[in-house]
Amino acid sequence: MLVLGIESSCDETGVALVQWQEQGLPRLLAHALHSQIDMHQAFGGVVPELASRDHIRRVVPLTQTVLEQSGQSLADIDVFAYTQGPGLAGALLVGAGVACALGAALDKPVLGVHHLEGHLLSPFLNTDKAPEFPFVALLVSGGHTQLMRVDGVGRYALLGESIDDAAGEAFDKSAKLMGLDYPGGAALARLAEQGNPNAFKLPRPLLHSGNLDFSFAGLKTAVLTQVQRMVAQHPHASSVDLGADFALLPLSQRCDLAASVQAAIVEVLVKKSLAALQQTHLMRLVVAGGVGANRSLREQLTAACGQRGIRVHYPALQWCTDNGAMIALAAAMRLQAGLEQADKRYAFNVKPRWPLGDPGDNGP
Ligand code: KG4
Ligand code: ZN
């Protein structure tokens, strides 16, 4: 069976083709991605209308690239999968509309995939080192921070989540205050490499809450206060653009603040992940989502889990942020597990529930 997957929930258009049989993990045959980051950077964040229009421009050429790379034709595809949500409605409609149009034209079934399930299963793209069930998953993206217990494909229980900002949002908002381009997470992490993580005392919200929830909104406020304090001392600060003023400060000070912000976020993610592992008595952790690309998070999780004999699985860096491969893979794994019947109704829903309910129960 060949599944074509389309991701278009935010600022990346991704298309991929996977092949699966009754047994064994689905195999990625080809993938193509276009990131809109350059386009949105001038606005300091994603402009939904521009995002939708760009998805429209890219999705068909990317599909053609994937077909060329894999040597397959549209007629060979058995199922057209698309990201059902969550995401920007206009952006989601592009992927959903194209998948349904292709399905209808070729008389093939379609399947909507939850974006977070795509992230969650992305470590299975690494067929050599794929995790075994059950495991604890730390889902850390730009929009979500969640700890889940995962007992199998489609068998997910939420253990805790952010009650306000997501970890990626904390990275991005702190980066913006520090004058870094959108999306600032990776740029902040780069600055942090040369900084002292103990230079500034920043809050670790809910670290001792006794549950597995997160909160990052207070951290953002603390970063704002710290940036204002540092900038106030600079003789050329204009007081018009905080980020631009911050960029005037010596590199070492900027690196120190970046390292302190990263340390605060990473410490909370590591300690809560360990608490989730302890609570569930599981010995495997899977990390997924864009923040899963963060080197400090990987190093600290690997070290802390290594000491306890816990195995940690990360997706390859290219599968941490949004991509079509994880959507095609999640669709194939759900079909393979018998959880889904891809259908020919071509009526799509772009607001699914998470964690997923009973098979077929995807709305509203
Ligand atoms: O999973 P993703 O592509 O999008 C969502 O589904 O939200 O994650 C994007 C997030 C952004 O917040 C971005 O700043 C963050 O992942 N990110 C990072 C790094 N690379 C991407 N955050 C910290 N360190 C990184 N190296
Ligand atoms: Zn994502």
Question: How does this structure look, described?
Answer:
This protein is of the alpha/beta class. It has two domains: 2-123 and 320-336, Nucleotidyltransferase, domain 5; 134-314, ATPase, nucleotide binding domain (Nucleotidyltransferase, domain 5), CATH 3.30.420.40. 41% of the residues lie in helices and 18% in strands. It is built from eleven helices and ten strands. Strands 3-2-1-4-5 form a five-stranded mixed beta sheet, sandwiched between helices. The chain has a five-stranded mixed beta sheet with strand order 8-7-6-9-10, sandwiched between helices. Strand 6 (135-140) and strand 7 form a beta hairpin. Helix 2 (48-70) packs parallel to helix 3 (89-106) and helix 9 runs parallel beside helix 10. The protein is globular. Bound molecules: 5'-O-[(R)-(carboxyoxy)(hydroxy)phosphoryl]adenosine and zinc ion (ZN). Residues 115, 119, 141, 322 line the site of zinc ion.
- CATH fold label of the largest domain: Nucleotidyltransferase, domain 5
Sheet with the most strands: spatial strand order: 3-2-1-4-5
Describe the largest sheet.
5 strands, mixed
How many domains in all? 2
Residue fraction in strands: 15-25%
Which architecture name of the largest domain does CATH use? 2-Layer Sandwich
What would you call the shape?
globular
| Range of helix content | 40-55%
Contiguous uncertain segments of 5+ residues: 359-364
Q: Report the mean per-residue pLDDT as an integer.
A: 94
* Ends apart, CA distance between termini: 29 Å
| Total of helices | 11
Structural class: alpha/beta
What is the string of helix and strand elements? Answer: EEEHHEHEHEEEHHHHHEHEH
Bound compounds, each kind once, are:
5'-O-[(R)-(carboxyoxy)(hydroxy)phosphoryl]adenosine, zinc ion
CATH class of the largest domain: Alpha Beta
Give the total of beta strands: 10
So, the CATH homologous superfamily of the largest domain?
Answer: ATPase, nucleotide binding domain
Radius of gyration from the alpha-carbon trace, in angstroms: 21 Å
